[in-house]
Amino acid sequence: MTAATITTVATTPFADQKPGTSGLRKKVPHFRQPHYVENFVQSIFDALDGFAGADLVIGGDGRFFNRETIQTAMKMAAANGFGRAIVGRGGILSTPAASNLIRVRGAFGGIILSASHNPGGPDGDFGIKYNASNGGPAPEKTTDAIFARTKSISDYRILDAPDVDLDAVGETRLGDMVVEVVDPVAEYQALMEKLFDFPRIRVLFAGGFRMTFDAMSAVTGPYATAILEGALGAAPGTVINGTPLPDFGGHHPDPNLVHAKFIYDLAMGPDAPDLCAASDGDGDRNLIIGRGIFVTPSDSLAALAANAHLAPGYAAGLKGIARSMPTSAAADRVAEAKGLKAYETPTGWKFFGNLLDAGLATICGEESAGTGSDHVREKDGLWAVLLWLDILSARKQSVLDIMRDHWRTYGRNYYARHDYEEVAAEGANALMAGLRGQLSTLPGRSFGALTVKSADDFSYHDPVDGSDSAHQGVRVLFEDGSRIVYRLSGTGTAGATLRVYIERYEGDRLDLETGEALKDLIALSRELAGIERHTGRTEPSVIT
Ligand code: G16
């Protein structure tokens, strides 16, 4: 038992603690300002009710400042009256594993420390978010209450106690609160074994199937090594960059074609493995590249939804399919063909939570490399890889053949996302305002072969709790079903990031090069919004 006293510390509000798309994300030096972390954590607790004596899951992706913040959060949880903190060994919990732990342990909620795919290190990014008892990111009404509290906070409570050893599994005490350090992988692996046909996937690997999984020196390494190389018998060395590092080895742990170029090149090279995959900083995103074929996240969602019944966990079929608005409509075609309901939500995994809780949807996905299901309430990188493996082992076909077959059945949604990163916020805001100002004038206008059918600023009415979310992105929809969508990222930490999503559906022309298929739409996306005029950029920084 650690002797400990509760201290109440006077503080003043910070004006910039508004949670973004997924929690509060800032640079590490910003978080290291005196009281910055404490103010936000206390504001989370102040926005919640009824947690006296309850369990709180705490963990993060191992990035720089993770361990210090976990100690702070635990001492504050103890001082605020939580009964038990459940913490991953070494402070490690992937975001989906944390979501699972909240659910299986019936915890009140969880604090997840991550800035996802953003770089780490002393000058890198950090983040704090709160997940509710369903295991999912707090809904807007909670994040609004947290933000409101950050603006009026005048003190916080913290236990004056020595740090807890995070590296030994077992129980200890922090004042009146129990601290339980758990193996971060065990519960998650048990869940995966229930959902997927591990013996069948083992046969696939035993038959010579080769795979490379790039954990990007981030949190998924221990999970992927235990499951792929351990339980499933993939060859040693299948998992690369498998040790989580505080600075991700100096890399940007974003599994896209720029930052995971190594595995893209591998998959396109002469000795390509059958499957290349990667996950991000906190393990919730995924990248899937078969031999000779990059599967866009939107196509991956559609293919997984179309084939999920082949995995034991989904053998009973799906209840519905949900996608975020900027995600391509490929998944909608699967839903339509299978007679399932399709949902279109704003960007942000939190919007899927109600649909999953209410049993309206089983599989969800986003263009931003997130796919998941009702097994947890976060997107789940390794889950997506395992579902692909299960499907590959059931169909005994290559990724390329499965995708070709998919397009023949459903048609193909050519799709690209253009990111203009770290542009000046004023220019980005002016660009969006300019687009919003044009909305009423666009319908009926023609640009070359393209005629605008409708244009709007997307708003969402949640069918479960009745809440409304407006201004979720500008959509320009064309007569032929093509689309251009514009929105500003809610996860960046420097300047603004403009995202432009471009899509065209083709029923027959299935083998075009994406850039070629979208050429006129890409040019129009720049002209309509005045991208160069507002941002000074002539080309995007990242294309996926
Ligand atoms: C978060 C959200 C996702 C969202 C993504 C990108 O993911 O959970 O729903 O699609 O951000 O958001 P934005 O386009 O606003 O940058 P993560 O992986 O960063 O937690």
From TrEMBL:
The keyword Electron transport does not apply. Keywords: Isomerase, Magnesium, Metal-binding, Phosphoprotein. It catalyses: alpha-D-glucose 1-phosphate = alpha-D-glucose 6-phosphate. Residues 17-156, 195-289, 298-410 form the Alpha-D-phosphohexomutase alpha/beta/alpha domain. This is phosphoglucomutase (alpha-D-glucose-1,6-bisphosphate-dependent). One of its GO terms (cellular component) is cytosol. Its EC number is 5.4.2.2. GO terms for molecular function: magnesium ion binding; phosphoglucomutase activity. Belongs to the phosphohexose mutase family. It comes from Lichenibacterium minor. Its cofactor is Mg(2+).
